[in-house]
Amino acid sequence: MVLKESVKRGKRYRDVHAGRPSASETEWIVEALYRGTDGVQYAVLVCASDLTRRKTLSIDALTDAEGFQRV
């Protein structure tokens, strides 16, 4: 499986809105990467400040500069 070069396990990302960090500045850590049955590449993220919070995003959404910024 080939993923975008910049997305790897352990990398951190921050939510951004219109190019600015969100008020909470929540950081998310890439925990796992996989290709879904739909053929799309996904990243499973865990919240750095609360390890019980998780979300799954497509790699394209995660690498969109208007949505997330690599820390």
Structural features:
six-stranded antiparallel beta sheet; mainly beta; 1 helix; single chain
Number of strands: 6
Distance between the termini: 24 Å
Shape annotation? globular
How would a textbook summarize the main sheet? Answer: 6 strands, antiparallel
The oligomeric state is single chain
Q: What structural category arises from helix and sheet content?
A: mainly beta
Element pattern in H and E: EEEEEHE
Mean pLDDT across all amino acids? 85
Report low-confidence residues grouped into runs of 5 or more: none
* Number of separate domains: 1
Share in β-strands: over 45%
User: Portion of residues in helices?
Assistant: under 10%
| Discrete helix count | 1
Radius of gyration: 12 Å
Explain the overall architecture.
The protein is mainly beta and 71 residues long. The chain has one helix at 59-62; strands at 12-17, 20-21, 27-35, 41-47, 54-58, 68-70. Strands 1, 2, 3, 4, 5 and 6 form a 6-stranded antiparallel sheet that branches. The longest helix is centred in the last third of the chain and has 4 residues, at 59-62. The chain is globular, with a radius of gyration of 12 Å.
Q: How is the secondary structure organized here?
A:
Layout: E1 12-17, E2 20-21, E3 27-35, E4 41-47, E5 54-58, H1 59-62, E6 68-70
Antiparallel strand pairs: 1-2, 1-3, 1-6, 3-4, 4-5
